[in-house]
Amino acid sequence: MFDTFPVLRRAAVAVTIGAAGLLFVGCTTTGPKSSATASEKRQSLNSAADATLGKLYEASPQSKELVARARGILIFPDVLSGSFIVGAEHGNGVLRVGGATAGYYSTTAGSVGFQAGAQSKAMVILFMTDDALAKFRASSGWTIGADATVAVVNVGATGRIDTNTAQQPVVGFVMNNGGLMAGVSLAGTKISKLDL
């Protein structure tokens, strides 16, 4: 008697591996960006961070006042996420303190569950108190939800920022091509210092 279960299992594994390969075909370690010098990478990140802040101010003019009050601003211009059953996201960013670059960081997060696809988003995290900024800078790896809570800012229909959220020690904005994203959780996102 012919047992079809092993054949079906092999077919399912082959389809899963093939789909994952197609999803991550653009993720390669070779190419023009990998040959960029550290100085070029820093310049590129800073330019992208400036553009991200410009988009934030356009989407929510009131955010400019909040950014001006922040003790530190962590900007991730391009956080790429891809998933096929298991999801992962990664991006590089810059920390600015007093208007000057104070370091470069990477962000990573993962998720499990039925999902498929790829997308890009930008994150801006504001440290509103000296204590919150000091704890972040002293950490060797900072995880949202474990080391600190980041209150994602809600912007109303009138473009006004929710005042309760704006009073938290660490607040964040998440944007995609459509503008500010609402109802987003950043819990589990790990942020680590980069040597650039």
Which descriptors apply to this entry?
alpha+beta; Ysc84_actin-binding; 196 residues; Twin-arginine translocation pathway signal; 31% helix
Topology of this structure?
Blueprint: H1 5-23, H2 38-59, H3 63-69, E1 72-97, E2 100-127, H4 130-138, E3 142-143, E4 151-152, H5 163-166, E5 170-176, E6 179-180, E7 190-194
Parallel strand pairs: 4-5
Antiparallel strand pairs: 1-2, 2-5, 2-7, 3-7, 5-6
Describe this structure in words.
- Strands 1, 2, 3, 4, 5, 6 and 7 form a seven-stranded mixed sheet that branches.
- 25% of the residues are buried.
- This protein has five helices and seven strands.
- The chain is globular and about 45 Å long.
- It has one domain (37-191).
- The protein is an alpha+beta fold.
- The chain has helices at residues 5-23, 38-59, 63-69, 130-138, 163-166, and strands at 72-97, 100-127, 142-143, 151-152, 170-176, 179-180, 190-194.
- Residues 109-192 form the Ysc84 actin-binding domain.
- This is Twin-arginine translocation pathway signal.
- InterPro entries: Ysc84_actin-binding.
Order of helices and strands: HHHEEHEEHEEE
User: Helix amount, in percent?
Assistant: 25-40%
Please give the radius of gyration in angstroms: 19 Å
Number of spatially distinct domains: 1
Share of residues in strands: 35-45%
Which geometry do the CA atoms define?
Answer: globular
Question: Averaged pLDDT, please?
Answer: 78
Total beta strand runs: 7
Instruction: State the helix count.
Output: 5
Distance between the termini: 62 Å
